[in-house]
User: Fold this.
Amino acid sequence: MRALLLNPEMPKSFWTFEQSCELSEAKALMPPLGLLTVASLLPTEWEIRLIDLNARGLSEKDWEWSDMVMISGMVVQSEGMLELCRQAKQRDKTVVVGGPYVTSVPDALQDSGADFLILGEGESIMQEFLASLRSGEKSGFFREREKPDMTLSPIPRFDLLHLKDYAIWAVQTSRGCPFDCEFCDIVNLYGRKPRYKTPEQLLAELEYFYRLGWREEIFISDDNFIGNKTHAKAILHKLIQWMKAHGEPFTFWAQASVNLGQDPELIDLMTEANFHTVFIGIESPDESVLTGTRKFHNVANPLGESLDNIKRNGLSVMASFVIGLDHEQKGAGKRICEFVEQNEIPSVMLNTLQVLPNTALWERLKREGRLLQDRTSGQSTGGRFNYVPSRPESEIIEEYLEAVNRLYEPSGYLSRSYGYFLAMRPTRHFLATGETRPPSDNDRSFAERMRELRSLLRLIWWQGIMSPYRLQFWRQLVGMFKNNPTRTKKYLVCLATGENMFRMRQVISERLNQK
Assistant:
C-alpha cells in the first residue's frame, strides 16, 4: 500500500509567522505532529509519503504514486481539507480523513466523498480501521470508544520530514486539559482528564531529534503543559539531566495557564530545562468576562502579579486575548491595550471570537438561537463572527481594528519589548558563571552560525535601516547590551516576532472590510 498523507495549507493567521520563517530560512513554522503520529501507527510494510502543503508542493506524480490518500487538519484548515478530498476523488483515490475538524464536523467531509472517517485519536482507532481495510471494506466510519493511554503512543515519523523546512519542531507530552473554559474545544476533543506520556517517552523523541541533527527550538504542543504540575515537574527533572548531558542542544516553549506565575519552583525548573517562552490564554482583563466563560483560574490570583512573576524569573510571555465574548462591555479593546501596555507584554495574539463546534459555548448559543452555523471558519485572526454577539457587531469590529493597530504598531511594540526584557533577570548561566554566552553556542556548526548571522542582518535591514523607527531600534539595542546583555538574543528574537504582527495589520484590515 502506498499512502499519501496530506496536511492542508494554513490560511494566514497569527500562527503562520511568515516573517519569522523567512528569518530562519524555513518554509513553515512547525510540522503536522498529528499526521506524523498517524504515520507511525500504519503498517511498517506500507510505503508512506507525507506532504505538508505549508512547506512543499503537491504534484501530479504524487497523486499517481498513491493508492490511498489520508488527510488531516483543524477547523481553520477546513476548506483545504475539503478541496484535497475533492481532488483525490476526482483521481479515483481511496480517501481517509481524520483529525480535529472531521472529529468535530464529520458530515462535511462525508458529503465531499471521503471513504473512511476516523473520529478521535488515532491510537485508539487505527487497528480497527486497518482490520476493516484488510477485510476488503471500501468505506467506514470509526469513532473512538475511549481516550487512548498515551504511554502506548509511538514516536512520530519525523524521518518523513525535510529537516530544514521548519523553524520549530514539536513534541507532545499530554492531551486534555483540567479546566473547562466555555469557548474552548479541547475538552470535547481530548477530554478534561489529562493523559500523559512518560518522561522516558519524551526523552526518546528528543534523542531522535538529536540524532537527526536538529539543534533549534522545540514546541511542547500540550494544550496546557502545567495542567498537572506533578507530571510537569517529573518531566522537567528528567529533561534537565538529559539537556545537561547533551550540551543543551534545544530551547523550548510551551502553552501554560497563568497560574504558573504562582509557582516559582515550576518556573525555575522550566528555565533550568531551557524553556524561554510560554503562551498563555489571558483572554480578557475583565473579571466578569473571565468568570462568564468559566476561566476561573484567571481570576484566582491577580493577573498582573502572575505575569510579572513569570517575566522576572526568566520566561517571556506570549499572551492571547479574545474580543466578542459575552459579558463584555463597550471599550473592551481599549482595556486590553491598557492591560498589555501596563504589563509591557510584547507579543499578543488578538482574536475575534470564533465559536467552535460542540463546545459548551456552541451548545448554549445554539439553544439561544444565536448561532450562525453556516459561517464557522475557525479563523480567529480577524475572522467574521459565526454567532450573534451580545453587543453590536460593528462596535466590536471597530474596537478590534483599533486594538490591532495600537498593539501591532511597531514603535509601541519595540518599546514594550525593551521594557519587558530589561526587567527580566539575567540568564541562569550568567548568574552561575558570569559568562554571557550559553554553552550550547560553542557547539553550533559553521552553517548554523552563518544562518543566524543572515537572520540578524535581515532584521537589521527591516528595522534598523529601512524603518521609520530605526533610531529607536538602535537606541534600545545599545541599551540592552549595556543593561541586560544576556537577554539581548531573546530580545532580538522578540523583535523578529513583531514583524509578523506589523504586517498582519493589513491582512486583518482587508479581511474585516470585505463586504
Remarks:
- The chain has a mean pLDDT of 94.
